[in-house]
Amino acid sequence: MGRWICYLCSRVADALMLLLVLAVGCDPSSAAAASPSVPHVKPSYSFGRTFLGLDKCNACIGTSICKKFFKEEIRFDTWLSSHLKLPPSSLLSYSGNYTDDAKSWRLVDITRLTSKYQHDRADKHICTSLLKTKTCSLERALRRTQRFQKWLRAKRLTPDLVQGLPSPLLRCPSQRLLDRIVRRYAEVPDAGSIYMDHLTDRDKLRLLYTLAVNSHPILLQIFPDVEGWPFPRYLGSCGRLVVSASTRPLRDFFGAAPEVAADLALQLLAVLGSMATNDLNYFFYFTHVDAGTFGVFSNGHLFIRDASTLGIIDKEEGSQPMDGQQEHKDIFSCLTVDCQSSLVSCDSIREKHSLVMVCQDLLPKLLAGKFQPHVQGRIDAFLRRCAHGLGELEELEHILKPLRSCDSRFAYRYPDCRYSDKY
To answer: Cβ distance 176 to 314 under 8 Å?
Structure first.
């Protein structure tokens, strides 16, 4: 009986299999459904703490966006290809993609404070000068410095605590500006006070280190784009990497069509105007500009892409006198620059300081040979005068405004430009 039951079960199974094969043959879509599914193997994006610079903390920027990296909600462009490899650690910046919901992605820039070579050299300098060793705990070494001990005791960030730091942002500091830095420091969860009570020892070291190496992320935090400031949005940092909204450098547009070049030049002049005159009475000036200083969003809007060379003079409160800066230099003064380099006096900065730089180094490359001879001649003549500090910004604006067009290429002002003289 048992053998008969087994034989019967076998025949039934064969019949059922035959019916399944016939059904699949009649319906191709069923074939796909019937085929066994191949389990999806999730690729591994392991990259360790060294690439991010987490192994250097708290001689780093912060950790506010680290979870995004480890949850793969920030991906380098190379991760979207079949070869899931990290880009070289020697690069200063990387293109990436960012998501909040794992469905929609947006482009971001992932940037180092300075090159890996400069970072490594500075780290070695910290160990050899403070602890007389080739390698060391950077945090332990920096905590022993006189400057950081003053930071630990301080209740408020005052000019004497930043004296001698090489950042242009701190070259002419006012108390109002320093209060703004502490109040809007985005690497701590409970910012809002001008007093440093909410900053742990770790937070203070990260803030001091960032100000000493490159103040770019600090400027993005204290003058956010949502308030109308011409900077990309600060999204956070992890170790020694900063993540911000993506822009294309202005150099990519040097060969752009005449109407695009005219539009970007007008935006550039508008940015310089807002940096000189704004509701907060801060005067922003550049110590250096190049083809990567400004960037353009996908909607055509121009922003300051690299704020590391921006200085600020407080027109409302004035700047605290910083006499004898050379005597107050220490290890924090020499992490990215030569300790012997002299600082530009605040009194030497003139109203047209940034405009002269732009007329010398950027506008000729953007506007050269783009327009009809009689218009081009007027533009070139102005740029020659402007490069020597002559001429007014409004003069070039008057020449360029009739040259730009109103279409979807300029999404930041389209279709408003069809109905408003403002655009």
So the answer is: yes
Would the pLDDT of 16 be above 80?
no
**What's the token pair of residue 45?**
């994006």
Residue 114 in 3-state DSSP? coil
Report CA-CA distances (Å) from 128 to 10, 331, 349, 368.
Answer: 81, 11, 37, 50
In 3-state terms, what secondary structure has residue 242? strand
Where does 66-147 show beta strands of DSSP type E? 74-76, 93-98, 106-112
**Closest by Cα among 124, 147, 154, 133 to 209:** 147
Round to the nearest angstrom and report the end-to-end CA distance of the chain: 93
* Residue the block writes with tokens 């909410």: 198
DSSP helix/strand/coil, 212: helix
Question: What separation in angstroms does the CA of 71 have from each of 50, 107, 221, 234, 237?
Answer: 17, 17, 24, 19, 15
Q: What is the pLDDT of residues 145-186, one digit of tens each?
A: 999 999 999 999 999 999 999 999 999 899 999 999 999 999
Q: Which residue type occupies 318? A: G
What number of residues does the chain have?
423
With CA atoms as reference, report the closest residue to 370 among 252, 273, 298, 265.
Answer: 265
56 closest CA partner among 120, 133, 151: 120
Secondary structure string (H, E, C) spanning 294-353:
EEECCCCCEEECCCCCEEEEECCCCCCCCCCHHHHCCHHHCCCCCCCCCCCCHHHCCCCH
**How many other CB atoms sit within 10 Å of the CB of residue 32?**
10
pLDDT at 201 over 90: yes
Q: How far apart are CA 250 and CA 35, in angstroms?
A: 52
Residue 382's contacts (CB-CB under 8 Å, 6 or more residues apart) are 391, 395, 396, 399
Token pair of 400 as six digits: 């360029």
Q: Is the pLDDT of residue 46 over 80?
A: no
Strand partners of residue 106:
98
pLDDT at 3: 44
Whether pTM > 0.70 for this model: the answer is: yes
Strand ranges inside 19-129, DSSP E: 74-76, 93-98, 106-112
Q: How confident is the model at residue 278 (pLDDT cuts 50, 70, 90)?
A: very high
* Residue bearing tokens 């547009």: 253
